[in-house]
Amino acid sequence: MSRKLHLNAFLMSVGHHEASWRLPESDPHASWNVKHFQELARIAERGKLDSIFFADSPVLQGDPGRRPAGKLEPTVLLTALAAVTEHIGLIATASTSYNEPYNLARRFASVDHVSGGRAGWNIVTTAGADAARNFGLDDVPLHADRYERAAEFVEVATKLWDSWADDAVLADKEAGVHADAAKVRAINHRGRYFRVDGPLNVPRSPQGYPLLVQAGSSEDGRQFAARFAEAVFTAQQTLGEAQDFYRDLKQRAAALGRDPDGVKILPGIVPVIGDTVGEARELDAELERLISPEYAKRQLAERFNLDPDDLDLDGPLPADLPTEDEIEGAKSRYTLIVDLARRENLTVRQLIGRLGGGRGHRTFAGTPVQVADTIEEWFGSGAADGFNIMPAVLPSGLVAFVEKVVPILRERGLFRAEYTGTTLREHYGLPRPANRLELSKV
Amino acid sequence: MSRKLHLNAFLMSVGHHEASWRLPESDPHASWNVKHFQELARIAERGKLDSIFFADSPVLQGDPGRRPAGKLEPTVLLTALAAVTEHIGLIATASTSYNEPYNLARRFASVDHVSGGRAGWNIVTTAGADAARNFGLDDVPLHADRYERAAEFVEVATKLWDSWADDAVLADKEAGVHADAAKVRAINHRGRYFRVDGPLNVPRSPQGYPLLVQAGSSEDGRQFAARFAEAVFTAQQTLGEAQDFYRDLKQRAAALGRDPDGVKILPGIVPVIGDTVGEARELDAELERLISPEYAKRQLAERFNLDPDDLDLDGPLPADLPTEDEIEGAKSRYTLIVDLARRENLTVRQLIGRLGGGRGHRTFAGTPVQVADTIEEWFGSGAADGFNIMPAVLPSGLVAFVEKVVPILRERGLFRAEYTGTTLREHYGLPRPANRLELSKV
C-alpha cells in the first residue's frame, strides 16, 4: 500500500485570515454559533479528512474590537460536533499549565467515549502573562518549567487512562460483580508538580488515549514532541526548513526508541484558492485590504516586546530585536517571523500582510492544481506526512479545498477515497496504546 | 395563572437503586454509553420536564466491583444531550474545590451557548478525602473553608459572565469594528482564594448565567443556597421536615433581600411505580433482594466513620455515633439517615434496604395515582416548588413517570402541557440576570 497523506482542517471562527469576518459572506457571530462549526465538521467529513482541530488558550486573545475574539470551550465544541458526525477525528488544544490532570484526563476520555474513539488532544503549555493572570499568577511560568510540568502532566494523564484495564468490566449480573476490582487501580502518582491517587472515574476509552498532538517547535517543544507526540502541527515557510524540521524530529523520536513513523508531521498551509490564478490573487488582495494596519502593528510589537512606535509601517524591522532566548512564549514562531521578514526584505506593512492569513504559517494564493502540486511536492520530498489546512475564509475556503483540491489528491493516489477505520488513531495509521497497568502485572 | 410544579429528572447510570444494573432489562455498560443518556433526555423532553440533572464528583465513587462506578464527565455529557434535544434544561454538578473559576465559567457559558440557553450548574464543594487526593491534597479542606471558597468562586464566575456586555458585539464590517472594546472588560478580581483578571474569552451567553443550583442542606449549605441558589435539590424524608426546610430556606433568602420565589425548592423522590400496589411492591422487593448487604454495610460504616464490624446487620445502629459536627462531608445527609433509622426503629439491614434506592432520598413504591397524590400533597402544603425525580431503574422508571404520573399531574392542572419558553430559566420562571458590569457604568 502506498503511503497516504494525512489532512487535518484547522478551523477558526470564519477563517484564519484576521479580516475574514469583514467579507460579505461571513457571519460575524459564527465564533459562538455551534451550527457554524457543525456545518464545517460535516464539510470536512464529506472530504474524508482525517480530523478537524481547534486551537485554544484560557484567555481572551487579541483585540475584541478588531476581530472575533471569544470562542467556545473546545472540549464542549468537540462534543457538539461528535453528535453530528460519524468518522472525522476531533482534536482540541488544552493547556497543561492551567488545568488539573485528573479533570482534563477525564474530559478527554469522556469525549473519546462519546465520539466512539475520535478524540485528540493538542498539548500546549500556554504562553503569555495575560493567561497566567487568569489563574492567580503574576506572570507566565518560565518556558522550561512549563515544559517540565507538561511532561509530568502527560505522565499522570496516561497513568489515569491506564487505571482501568481494558477488560475490567465484567458485568456479571448473576454474581453481582460489576467490575474486577483488581483491574481498576490507584496510580498513586507523586511528582514535582502533581500528587494524584486515582483511579480515573471513567473506564478506559475506545482509543485508550486520545491522539496526542503537539505544536511547539522550540528546542523544548521539539524534545517534548519527540517524546510524546503522535502528530505534530508546525509552521514552516520554506521547503528546506520543513525538511530540516522533519528530519530533526524523526531523528529525535528514533533516538528515544520510538518508531519515527509513529510521529506524523503536518505543516500548516493557508491556501487562498481561486479557479484561476487571477481569482485567487484577487481574493488575497481583498483580504489584505481589509486588514487594519495600526491594529496589526500593535500585535506585532507585542510579539517583539517592543513599543508600537518602534515599528515603521513602511520601513524594515528594527535591526536590534530580542534574541529567541529573551522571548518567553511562542519562541520558534518569533524566529520564523524575523527570518521571513529579513529573508524577503519585507517592510512592516508587507510583513503584516503576510502574517494576516496564517500568523506565520505558509500562505499562498493559487489554483486547486497549484495547491495540490505544493502538497505533493512537500509530501514527496521528506517535508511532511500530511498538512494542517488552515482556510483563510470559512466555510468557503474549506468547501473549495474539499471540493477542488481533495479530488486531485485522490486522483493522484495520495489521499483516501473512503474512511477505512472508525477511530482517529486508525485514520492516522497509529496503534491503540497498550495499557501499562496490565503490562506491569506480568 | 395557577402555580405550576417544576420537575427535574435526576439521572444516574441505569437507575438510582444500587442494584438496578442487575435487573434483566439493564445494560450494565450504559454509564459510559452516550446513546443511553440521549434516550433518557428524549424521554424526559417528551414529558415536558423542566430539566435533567447529573451529579458528579472528581473521584471514583463507590466500589467498582459492586456497581457501575465510572461515568462520563457531565459538561461533556450535557453537550452531547443538547445536540439531540430542543427544550429540556441540562444541569450538571461541578466542584468549586477542584476547578479553576476561569475554566469552569467558560465551560458553562459554552454549554449555554451550544444549548441555546439550557445550561444549569449544581454548585458543590465536594466532600471526601479521596477526591482531595486526586488534586495534590492529603485530606479534604474543612467544610467551612470549602464553602468560603465556593462563595468566592461563584462571585468570580458571575463577574466573568458579566465581563461582556450583552450588546458588546457590534459586528460593523464597514468600519472594521467587531466589538465595542469598552464593553468587554477586565474584572481584576483579588480575593482570598482567587486572583483573576479576565475578561472571559466567550461572550455573555443566552441565559446570562447558567441556572445556579445547590444541594447542600447543612447550616453552611443552607446559607450558601439562600445567597446564590435559584433551585435547591434536597433530601427530605417526611412532610414535616420538608415544610421546615422549605420555610427556613425561603426566610433566609428573604432576609438576604432576595425574592423567596426566586429560589425553587425540589425535594428528591425515588418512586418505584407499578400499575397496582402489588406490582410496585414486587419490583421494590426484587431490587432489595439484589442488594449485596455486606457491601452496603461497608459503605454505611464509612459514612459513619465506623469499622464495618461495629455494625450488626440484624441489630439497630450503635447508640454511640459521631455528632454531625464531627462529620466533614454530607453533614445533613448523615443526620437524616441516623434520624430515619431511629424514628422507625430500623435494623441495619432494613436501613440498607431503605437507602438502596435513594441514598437518603424519599423512596416509595406505589401506583401512578399514589405518586401523583404525594407530589400534589407536598406541593400544596408548603413543602416543595417541584420535585427531583430519581427513578430507581432507567430507562423504565423514567418512562413510567412520564407516561403514567405526568399525565395525571397535567390533568390536575399542576404541570405544563407544552413548553412555553426556550431557556432553562424560562422553564423555572426565573429571570435572566442583569449584567452588573453594565449597571456599574451608571
Automatic annotation (TrEMBL), chains A, B:
<feature type="binding site">
    <location>
        <position position="143"/>
    </location>
    <ligand>
        <name>FMN</name>
    </ligand>
</feature>
<feature type="domain" description="Luciferase-like">
    <location>
        <begin position="28"/>
        <end position="383"/>
    </location>
</feature>
<dbReference type="InterPro" id="IPR036661">
    <property type="entry name" value="Luciferase-like_sf"/>
</dbReference>
<keyword id="KW-0503">Monooxygenase</keyword>
<dbReference type="InterPro" id="IPR011251">
    <property type="entry name" value="Luciferase-like_dom"/>
</dbReference>
<feature type="binding site">
    <location>
        <position position="218"/>
    </location>
    <ligand>
        <name>FMN</name>
    </ligand>
</feature>
<feature type="binding site">
    <location>
        <position position="56"/>
    </location>
    <ligand>
        <name>FMN</name>
    </ligand>
</feature>
<dbReference type="GO" id="GO:0004497">
    <property type="term" value="F:monooxygenase activity"/>
</dbReference>
<feature type="binding site">
    <location>
        <position position="217"/>
    </location>
    <ligand>
        <name>FMN</name>
    </ligand>
</feature>
<protein>
    <submittedName>
        <fullName>FMN-dependent oxidoreductase (Nitrilotriacetate monooxygenase family)</fullName>
    </submittedName>
</protein>
<keyword id="KW-0288">FMN</keyword>
<keyword id="KW-0285">Flavoprotein</keyword>
<dbReference type="GO" id="GO:0016705">
    <property type="term" value="F:oxidoreductase activity, acting on paired donors, with incorporation or reduction of molecular oxygen"/>
</dbReference>
<feature type="binding site">
    <location>
        <position position="147"/>
    </location>
    <ligand>
        <name>FMN</name>
    </ligand>
</feature>
<feature type="binding site">
    <location>
        <position position="93"/>
    </location>
    <ligand>
        <name>FMN</name>
    </ligand>
</feature>
<comment type="similarity">
    <text>Belongs to the NtaA/SnaA/DszA monooxygenase family.</text>
</comment>
<dbReference type="InterPro" id="IPR051260">
    <property type="entry name" value="Diverse_substr_monoxygenases"/>
</dbReference>
<keyword id="KW-0560">Oxidoreductase</keyword>
<dbReference type="Pfam" id="PF00296">
    <property type="entry name" value="Bac_luciferase"/>
</dbReference>
<dbReference type="InterPro" id="IPR016215">
    <property type="entry name" value="NTA_MOA"/>
</dbReference>
